[in-house]
């Protein structure tokens, strides 16, 4: 009986790649609102590239080439100001991943409105992820360094997305002025609580924190590892 159950499980998992085009659709939404200056923009964009280029993340992305992760990156700020940086791309080879990393490192900042329309960004991410309905899991990552001040309330958008099966995780960026001292910890704690209550949704959704944009690459790497960990078991 145990042998038969093990065989059935093996056949089910072995067939999984044939049942879906990808194991995970991952959309990264980057905050480029007015509070993000040119230096911080470069640290954020370069931080995503550095995280994707790390050996640990590379290993997890390449773990199942027959059912790759589909990745996209977009920028957001005001209600009518979102832009795709990396369109949906199946990360099915080192060459493809290298091209995505190079694209991110070469991306120049565009003019963006100063507002912070977090609810709109969540809705846009949901719209993009609906294009990847065949994937086993769909995850939206929202990076932000402040609370929403324009557009629909994130809480209202979150309640709607909760019915879609999409998971939203957040990467909260705190202030990085060393002169602020312990204030940094209290400020990032407050912002993390806001994203926890208003933004994240779905099974095992979480908030990752970065102490300033200089810490962004480290935080993004840890977040990607955590997100990708849950689906590598399908190799077994």
From TrEMBL:
Ranges where the VWFA domain occurs: 25-228
Coiled coil: none
PROSITE patterns named among the record's database cross-references: VWFA
Highest rank taxon of the organism: Bacteria
Pfam families noted in UniProt: DUF1194 (PF06707)
Stretch forming the signal peptide: 1-20
Key words of the record: Signal
Name assigned to this protein: DUF1194 domain-containing protein
UniProt organism field: Sulfitobacter sediminilitoris
Lineage, uppermost ranks: Bacteria, Pseudomonadati, Pseudomonadota, Alphaproteobacteria, Rhodobacterales
